[in-house]
């Protein structure tokens, strides 16, 4: 492979001389969304290496270190974004059967300096509370759009779904039970092999915020008899057969927030997922039950939600003042 030719992730896999069957299985080791992100990051790194007359595969620690510095300064990237770029570089080397330069001492030192200089705190979007949801869903949109939007928002909140998980849902992934709906999440960020997770969506006391009622109404009104659960709606031809694109979930959240008089800039699709965790923590739910619903593998992120949700619960200052 020429030093100045920007390689693709596919070519890095092929460099390991795998059989076609092995190549197929290697491609299935990550979700399509992850591969798209890796491919974009890898193309940018390859272009940087070519521009500076260096090899991208295999890359040496100096090239990777300089790229990190470039991202932090000239490109103005945040530490989390640079870390994702390193993950793509590492993945390309592993797939080609090469040692990853991202774990070298120079790269680790540069990243430590970047984090100290720029800070690694993420600008998290605001978590949506049930009160916020009620305001947003007071006017979810006209006709079929409103029925879909209500079901989509409440399902994402109650099941703590990522937007990719939400739009991937099929009608066959739902099971109606006396207690509510059971969702089967086929593949997710923390379940790359597609073992599947079962998530319970219970009925709510407030019918206006009941995900079960909203989902049942959407399925009946649309109507949805098979295929994607949440679909695009065309202004002229009406309901389509194709699944809603995941970026539209964020758009719907922002549109409803603006309509309710909330600041759309502080909300995203993730506000629904974090909102469930934060609201559950505020209501006294245990770490275990929150993790079961959100499907987090680590307590670290869940405890951030719990800390946020418990800021004014049993607050020491409230007792002292």
How would you sum up this structure, described in words?
This protein has 321 residues and is mainly alpha-helical. It has two domains: 9-118, DNA polymerase, domain 1 (Orthogonal Bundle); 130-309, hpI Integrase, Chain A. The protein is 52% helix and 8% strand. The chain has 15 helices and five strands. The chain has helices spanning 9-14, 20-27, 32-51, 61-72, 79-95, 105-118, 130-136, 143-158, 163-168, 211-221, 246-259, 270-282, 287-294, 299-309, 316-320; strands at 174-177, 180-185, 197-202, 231-234, 238-243. It has a three-stranded antiparallel sheet with strand order 1-2-3, with no helix packed on it. A two-stranded antiparallel sheet has the order 4-5. The relative contact order is 0.10.
Examine the coordinates and then state which fold CATH places here, giving the name of the CATH topology of the largest domain. hpI Integrase, Chain A
- Counting DSSP E segments of at least 2 residues, the number of strands comes to 5
Please identify the structural class as seen in this structure. Answer: mainly alpha
Shape: globular
User: What composes the largest sheet?
Assistant: 3 strands, antiparallel
Terminal-residue CA separation: 69 Å
Q: What keywords describe this structure?
A:
single chain, 321 residues, mainly alpha, DNA polymerase, domain 1, hpI Integrase, Chain A, 2 domains, 3-stranded antiparallel sheet, two-stranded antiparallel ribbon, 52% helix, 8% strand, globular, disordered N terminus
What's the gist of this structure?
This protein is mainly alpha-helical and 321 residues long. The chain is built from 15 helices and 5 strands.
């Amino acid at each position: 492979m020429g030093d100045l030719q920007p390689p693709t992730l596919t070519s890095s896999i092929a460099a390991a001389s795998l059989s076609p069957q092995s190549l197929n299985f290697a491609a299935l080791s990550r979700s399509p969304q992850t591969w798209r992100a890796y491919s974009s990051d890898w193309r940018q790194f390859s272009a940087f290496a070519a521009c500076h007359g260096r090899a991208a595969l295999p890359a040496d620690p100096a090239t990777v270190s300089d790229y990190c510095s470039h991202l932090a300064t000239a490109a103005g990237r945040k530490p989390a974004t640079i870390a994702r770029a390193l993950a793509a570089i590492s993945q390309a080397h592993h797939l080609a059967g090469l040692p990853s330069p991202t774990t070298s001492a120079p790269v680790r030192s540069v990243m430590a300096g970047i984090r100290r200089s720029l800070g690694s705190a993420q600008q998290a979007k605001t978590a949506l509370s049930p009160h916020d949801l009620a305001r947003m869903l007071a006017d979810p949109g006209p006709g079929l759009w409103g029925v879909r939007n209500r079901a989509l928002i409440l399902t994402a909140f109650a099941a703590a779904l990522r937007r990719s998980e939400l739009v991937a849902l099929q009608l066959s992934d739902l099971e109606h039970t006396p207690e509510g709906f059971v969702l089967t999440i086929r593949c997710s960020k923390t379940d790359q092999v597609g073992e599947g997770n079962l998530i319970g969506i219970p009925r709510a006391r407030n019918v206006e915020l009941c995900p079960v009622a909203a989902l049942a109404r959407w399925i009946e009104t649309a109507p949805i008899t098979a295929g994607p659960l949440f679909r695009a709606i065309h202004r002229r031809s009406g309901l389509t057969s194709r699944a809603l694109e995941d970026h539209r979930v964020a758009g719907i959240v922002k549109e409803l927030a603006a309509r309710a008089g909330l600041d759309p800039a502080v909300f995203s699709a993730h506000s629904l997922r974090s909102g469930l965790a934060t609201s559950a923590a505020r209501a006294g739910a245990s770490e275990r039950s929150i993790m079961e619903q959100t499907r987090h593998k680590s307590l670290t992120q869940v405890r951030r939600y719990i800390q946020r949700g418990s800021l004014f619960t049993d607050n020491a200052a409230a007792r002292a003042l």
